């Protein structure tokens, strides 16, 4: 029998995924499900990082491409590309990622805040960085990723 570990203030479980060469993570509680890429319907007049919307079992879900959100080159989708469905402010939202790599636990003491030298986009979008197996994993701040400061205002 496998012992289930509960999330505690000192130990939290994350879904880890890749965006380009960067590993990122979301708290497991923020993730509803992970799906293969569905046909995406473009919506004119929305922010450039919003790819459009998908129909998931009768529900219309907006989809954000995290590569576009972080101003990265956007290659064609491949067999490992996934959409992570998250729940935020009462609605489901899809996040396009290059691949989901693992689910893991991280001790809070192993999470460092973003460096001061990062620009505002980088600092605001990450709660911190965890070092796991000699790799740095950026823990995303969903609020700032989904609702970025509008530079044009």
Question: Could you characterize what this model shows?
Answer:
- This is Chemotaxis signal transduction protein.
- It comes from Schinkia azotoformans LMG 9581.
- One of its GO terms (biological process) is signal transduction.
- InterPro entries: CheW, CheW-like_dom_sf, CheW-lke_dom.
- Residues 11-151 form the CheW-like domain.
- The chain is mainly beta and 153 residues long.
- It has one domain: Beta Barrel (OB fold (Dihydrolipoamide Acetyltransferase, E2P)), CATH 2.40.50.
- It is built from 3 helices and 11 strands; from the N terminus they run βββββαββββαββα.
- The strands form 2 sheets. Strands 8-1-2-11-10-9 form a 6-stranded mixed β-sheet.
- The longest helix is centred in the last third of the chain and has 6 residues, at 120-125.
- The termini are far apart.
- The mean pLDDT is 87.
Task: Sum up the structure in keywords.
153 residues, mainly beta, OB fold (Dihydrolipoamide Acetyltransferase, E2P), five-stranded mixed sheet
């Amino acid at each position: 029998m496998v012992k289930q570990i509960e999330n505690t203030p000192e130990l939290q479980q994350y879904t880890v995924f890749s965006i380009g060469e960067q590993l990122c993570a979301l708290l497991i509680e923020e993730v509803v499900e992970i799906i293969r890429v569905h046909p995406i319907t473009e919506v004119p007049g929305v922010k450039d990082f919003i790819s459009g919307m998908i129909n998931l079992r009768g529900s219309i879900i907006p989809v954000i491409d995290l590569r576009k959100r972080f101003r990265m080159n956007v290659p064609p989708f491949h067999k490992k590309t996934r959409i992570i469905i998250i729940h935020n402010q009462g609605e489901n939202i899809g996040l396009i990622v290059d691949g989901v790599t693992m689910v893991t636990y991280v001790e809070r003491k192993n999470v460092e805040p973003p460096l001061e030298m990062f620009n505002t986009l980088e600092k605001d979008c990450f709660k911190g960085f965890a070092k796991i197996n000699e790799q740095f994993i950026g823990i995303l701040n969903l609020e700032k990723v989904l609702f970025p400061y509008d530079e044009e205002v």
